[in-house]
Specification:
The complex is a heterodimer of chains A (216) and B (282).
Chain A: H1 10-16, H2 20-41, H3 54-66, H4 68-81, H5 86-94, H6 98-111, H7 118-126, H8 130-136, H9 139-144, H10 147-160, H11 170-174, H12 178-193, H13 200-209
Helix pairs in contact in A: 2-3, 2-4, 3-4, 4-6, 5-6, 6-8, 7-8, 12-13
Chain B: E1 3-5, H1 15-24, E2 26-32, H2 43-54, H3 56-63, E3 67-72, H4 87-95, E4 100-107, H5 113-128, E5 133-136, H6 142-155, E6 163-166, H7 173-179, E7 182-186, H8 195-205, E8 210-213, H9 225-235, H10 240-256
Parallel strand pairs in B: 1-2, 2-3, 3-4, 4-5, 5-6, 6-7, 7-8
Helix pairs in contact in B: 4-5, 8-9, 9-10
The chains are: A mainly alpha (216), B alpha/beta (282).
């Protein structure tokens, strides 16, 4: 569960739901999300503040209707189907449980082109919840985190036990990164000094930098 | 032996406690929102706390193989502080969350008009959200507090079968049992109930609708009291099935009224690399 799955298709997700009742709920939830996306294109029918769209309540309650195993994928698909903008994503993240926050992070690469949602990734990377950290280091982080923030994200994964397979585009961003190599070597030296083993992931990341360091 | 502690404030406890609880048989807990010892001064302080009960604390519990759910509410003590009461307006967006299995702890502390208002409003919120309610009975003037609590519950939209009266003792159990509510007992090292008195209550009132909890928090308390009660029940001649009913099936039945209880704990699979609860760098 620590390696976030790529966004799935409706059919994939529907096939993984526990029963027909969950599938019916999922179909209705997607229809709510589609309606919200379509309504946004039309002129506003009423003056703000408009009530919260129905799909957002579905987003919150997806776990108990679809089962926890499918909830990440269901929530991410609802966000994509509703074409949630950064403002909505930010609010749903801030008001969300850890599970809801994870879904927002997983949907970012499909919904946000620029760096404007990086504060959400930064927030997740400040936690020690490995499920949030793993969801935060996906393709959106690879595309938009600054070099400093991205290096700390890699190190945070090593510290908290998130497998580096969760880090999108690791090989490309690590290649030739002398500063990352220095940080990894320092981390390795600290572990060696404490008599602790070096993980395979740590050695692997050092290798990916392609920067020669003193063998710890 | 499987144990469900239906009332414990894990935010105030250490990972050693989680480890010892797992070893004693605890596989599920419910953490009610409560007073933190230091009075809060703004709604934002509650929101951070609620977020922790919906995020960090279940994560910590899962790392020790324990399912964690919560109950959320404005507690009776802080219902008296006008700086805190706006929390009531924001509760609806929290009460829809997947791991919220009741409204609570609500009830009385000093039996003030502000507490009347908060209790009635939150019983209505429970009814509106399809949730049961965890109602704390006051520590001072307990029997009068119980009667006043029952009056408000009976006037509310929430049926008694969806209400759990907690912190009961010998002076309040009879009236509480007559009401039709679920009956909760907190077993403490010095105050509230103790293990032997708890067994006596079970002998007198039977095992139906009775829940036993440690209510462990930041004060002198013991998260293993549930296991102690189980052992004392067996020593007193209760069967394994009786113990399972009181310490597992009854809490599952009560909080299961929410339709949101999930007792399979997905354990994060990265523990071979170290444990983030242990801060990393282990």
């Amino acid at each position: 569960m620590l390696t976030p799955p790529p966004p799935r298709t409706r059919a994939d997700v529907a096939a993984r739901l526990p029963d027909d009742q969950a599938r019916a709920w999922f179909t209705e939830a997607l229809a709510d999300a589609t309606r919200a996306a379509t309504a946004r294109e039309a002129p506003p029918a009423q003056a703000p503040p408009a009530p919260r769209p129905a799909w957002q309540l579905r987003f919150v309650t997806a776990g108990r209707h679809c089962g926890q195993d499918a909830a990440d994928a269901v929530r991410a698909l609802l966000l994509i189907e509703a074409r949630a903008d950064t403002e909505t994503l930010t609010r749903l993240y801030r008001e969300g449980s850890a599970a809801e926050r994870r879904a927002v992070l997983l949907a970012l690469p499909s919904l946000v082109d620029g760096p404007q949602a990086t504060p959400l990734v930064d927030d997740a990377l400040r936690t020690h919840d490995t499920r949030l950290i793993a969801a935060a280091v996906g393709p959106y982080a690879a595309a938009h985190l600054t070099p400093h923030a991205w290096r700390h994200a890699v190190l945070k994964c090593l510290f908290t036990g998130v497998p580096l397979t969760a880090v999108a585009d690791l090989a490309r961003r690590a290649a030739g990164d002398a500063e990352l190599a220095r940080m990894l070597a320092a981390h390795a030296a600290e572990r060696t000094a404490a008599g602790r083993e070096l993980s395979r992931d740590l050695r692997h990341a050092l290798t990916l930098t392609g920067v020669p360091t003193e063998e710890p | 032996m499987r144990i469900f502690d239906p009332h414990i404030h894990m935010t105030s406890r250490t990972t050693d406690d989680y480890e010892a609880m797992y070893a004693a048989g605890v596989r599920a807990v419910v953490e009610p929102a409560f007073w933190l010892g230091q009075p809060r001064t703004s709604p934002a302080s509650f929101f951070d706390y609620f977020d922790a009960l919906l995020g960090w604390e279940p994560f910590r519990a899962a790392q020790y193989g324990i399912a964690h759910h919560c109950t959320l509410a404005l507690n009776p003590k802080e219902a008296n502080d006008p700086r805190c009461t706006p929390v009531l307006d924001e509760l609806p967006r929290y009460l829809v969350k997947d791991s919220v299995v009741a409204v609570g702890e609500i009830g009385y502390d000093a039996m003030t008009p502000a507490e009347d208002t908060a209790l009635a409003a939150q019983l209505q919120l429970a009814a509106d959200h399809g949730l049961p309610a965890l109602v704390h009975t006051p520590h001072r003037d307990k029997l009068a507090g119980l009667h006043r609590t029952l009056d408000v519950v009976r006037e509310s939209a929430l049926p008694v079968e969806r209400t759990l009266l907690d912190h009961l003792n010998e002076t309040t159990v009879a009236a509480a049992a007559d009401s039709g509510c679920w009956l909760g007992f907190s077993v403490y090292p010095d105050t509230k109930m103790d293990t032997d008195r708890m067994v006596t209550v079970l002998r007198t009132f039977g095992t139906e609708r009775i829940l036993v909890n440690s209510a462990a928090d930041w004060g002198r308390s013991d998260p293993l009291k549930t296991r102690e009660v189980a052992d004392a029940m067996l020593a007193a001649g209760f069967t394994d099935d009786d113990v399972d009913r009181v310490l597992w099936r009854n809490p599952v039945a009560f909080y299961g009224l929410s339709g949101r209880l999930r007792l399979d704990v997905p354990v994060p699979d990265a523990l071979h690399e170290g444990n983030s609860v242990l801060r990393g760098g282990e």
